[in-house]
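Cross-check.
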Amino acid sequence: MGDFDEGLTENALYQRYYSIRNRLENAILDFYLLSRHLPLQDIQQVFEPAYEWSRERRHLNEQGRTETRPDLSMFLQGWLSLFEFYAYGMLAGDMEETHGLMRGLMTTGLERGIRGYQHENYRTYQEVAASLSLEYGSKVLQENYLRQVQNDLPSEPDKAAEEVMRLYRQRKIPYQVASQLIEHYVQSPELR
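Predicted model, tokenized:
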């Protein structure tokens, strides 16, 4: 979180992030073993928050509230963040081949998971073809986007700071822009 990075030497900070990267790599490698050896009953227990969300969604549908979505639990927020992290990391290499690899890994993983589930639970084998289509809207110049962000900031400094940090955490604005907005609209609100 960076909350405890103050006072660390550059070497100590490097060691901390090195340790985090190693833990992350090992956690990702664990999925290889989990996908091959964790029994279905245990997988179902892990994914119970997703089933609970689905039950709640079904209940809302039955009430005719089809546009209402249940809140995402921290578990589901974690999955959302995992996909965000995966896409951001794969695209960060800025190579077209990596973009293709990203789509290929996702579609192959989906196909294997669905096929494995069907084979295990229905005692059948069914061909599955997943496709992942990434479509981008029209390009918007960053200056226009940032101007809109500034126009939408609340006038109260505390709420403006909250909104800036929310945009930064969601990677909708870079760190440098967040710092400038905090300095201008929060630390010097009279400039607004």
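Residues 72-135 form one domain. The radius of gyration is 22 Å. Passed to J.P. for a second look.
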